[in-house]
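User: quick one
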Amino acid sequence: MPNKVFVLGAGSTRYGRLNEGIIEIAMNASTDAIESAGIRPKDIEAGYISNVFGVSDRQVHMAPVIMSNLGIPEVPGLSIESACGSGSIMFREAFANVAAGFYDCVLATGVEKITHTGTIQSTTLFSYCSDFFYEGGNGASFPGLFASIARAYMARYKANEEDLARVAVKNHENGMLNPKSHVRKKITVDDVLQSPVVASPLKLYDCCPFSDGASAVILCSADFAKKSGRPLVEVVGSGRGASPAAVQGREDITTIPSSVAAANQAYKMAGVTPKDIDFAEVHDCFTIAEIIDIEDLGFFKKGEGAYAVREGATSRSGEIPINPSGGLKSKGHPIGATGIGQVVEVFEQFTGKADGRVIKDAELALTHNFGATGASSAVHIFKKVN
Ligand SMILES: CC(C)(COP(=O)(O)OP(=O)(O)OC[C@H]1O[C@@H](n2cnc3c(N)ncnc32)[C@H](O)[C@@H]1OP(=O)(O)O)[C@@H](O)C(=O)NCCC(=O)NCCS
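Assistant: Done. Structure below.
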């Protein structure tokens, strides 16, 4: 059995269009997490950094730069890239190293700076995260790929564009309560339906924005946690999964095999079922993704996700609140940071820091984040420790 691992502190920048350079953005979140954990930089034994397009801001090999800026240049750092799933996949590596007993205290920081490149260049760069030979290279950028997935889902399960829109309305409502959200704007189903078409049936408000931002957490062992005397969050489940990289390689495009595999592993490790989860942060890069996610994660039966959203089951007061932070849709999607940002939300929910958006009596939460159209996924389960 792996050793117990805890989240001791967490910090995040605002998500959105940021003027600072990528290292300054990463440092702001990292120092917030260090302060939140009540530790000193020299307590950190290793650093894990997730990022995808640092090259666009003239910085790759970011881990040693961040360690040096923290005044701990001798501490080994590792930079990890897994497209939009970079944060959670890096988190899994940080978790595994503490669970294996290699380290007692590590920093896990995710960062992205992309908005300076503009929508056309960002779309091109992001398409390099797809299976470029089959997808991006033939003009199938992510909105187009998720539009195909949406069409298949709507045809098979008799869902409609209003169902997709309801996901956006709910996540924007949640994001309004999060001061760090990128798109803080209350919208209606009609606003979504009347917004410009991006890739039919997906419209502007069905899509996440391009965001800059960073999020960071401190992970530690049980001994280290005990000495801190702080409120804690335990990582009780962790799973990883993979799918054929190109959508065309999948038998059924209304499910993401990597999400199902990662979730099953995480549930098994935690010894819980989907019914035990009190809220979840899931990968809603497009509204259709959230509907598929909540089925793949076992919260609803296949084909029933759209109906669950229609009935309000995923709202803050519903059966299983989904994306109380606002999700990728409203909080934003700085791709290297997103998976860590989800962990920050869980930490804030469980340690009394989610002012105005607390999910009452929640004790068990799940995070789910994937790369590209779900070629790689990671799922984690967290328990509030009183
Ligand atoms: C949806 C998308 C095409 C919009 O790009 P755009 O038309 O160039 O948008 P702009 O940046 O010019 O912004 C226009 C307005 O819409 C807002 N906006 C941009 N994207 C938005 C989004 N996704 N949701 C809500 N509002 C958005 C902007 O804030 C801006 O508002 P303002 O005029 O009040 O300032 C782009 O955000 C996109 O491609 N998103 C998907 C990103 C992606 O694929 N990520 C990877 C997922 S796997």
